Amino acid sequence: EGVVFLRGRTPNEAHKEWAGKLAGNTQDVVAVVNRIQVIERSMWDLSPAWLELQSLGKETVQNSPLIAVGLFLLFLTWMATKWSTQLAAYFLQRRVKSNLLRDVASRAVAVPVFVLGLYLVLKVSGLTRLAVTVLGGTGLLGLILGFAFRDIAENFLSSILISIQRPFAGGDLIQVAGFKGFVQSVNTRSTLLMTIEGNHVQIPNATIYK
User: By CB neighbour count within 10 A (0-12 exposed, 13-18 middle, 19+ buried), where does 161 fall?
Assistant: First the structure.
């Protein structure tokens, strides 16, 4: 039985603690005096950053096949999203008269295609947890955005309802929110009127729908 004295220098505290525990677990050692000094790294010491870059470079080389496949799938996802939007717009061209509603519907069709493609890209790239998070967080993200951009969402939904119900058409003379004018256009946020005096006024769609 005896006491162990440890001396030396180490670049970090973890090595010092490891040496102390190793000595303490040695048979017949009753006490450990750990006098190992931790070397304080200079603020200009870039060796940790260099080691991290080397590690990142090795991982990049090892994962390069997965990265290549992921980039290829990302390209296919972009193309599939574009094609699905165009295809939906083509089928809705004669069925939906409103340009706004047709554009919104065609883009809505492309959203699941994009989410599925992004999931496959992350899955193939080895980012399984992130892929699950993307799918699981899509609904939560939509809920958060709904609260954060409530007014924008309200105007957007109102524009869709206006396009479906068509209470007025372009060129109609209407009076709303204290303004009277001719309807020029309806976009996702507001309806543009031209008053009798020739002034342009934008009325939020939510105000018109209410």
Answer: middle
Domains and CATH numbers, the chain: 2-38 (no CATH), 48-148 (no CATH), 168-209 (2.30.30.60)
CA distance 122 to 124: 6
CA atoms within 13 A on the CB side of 42: 4
* pLDDT one-digit tens code per residue, 20-39: 888 888 888 888 888 888 87
Q: How big is the CA angle at 114 (ends 126 and 68), to the nearest 5 degrees?
A: 40
Please, are residues 161 and 207 in contact by the beta-carbon 8 Å criterion?
no
Question: Which pTM was predicted?
Answer: 0.44
Q: Which two tokens stand for residue 36?
A: 């190992």
Q: Where are the alpha helices (H) located in the chain, listed in sequence order?
A: 13-24, 47-62, 64-92, 99-124, 128-148, 150-165, 205-209
Torsion of CA 73, 78, 79, 83, to 10 degrees: 140
- Tens digits of per-residue pLDDT, 112-168? 888 888 778 777 776 666 555 655 555 555 555 555 556 666 777 777 777 777 788
Instruction: Mark out the alpha helices in 149-189 (DSSP H runs).
Output: 150-165
**Closest C-alpha to 205, from 160, 166, 140, 139:** 160
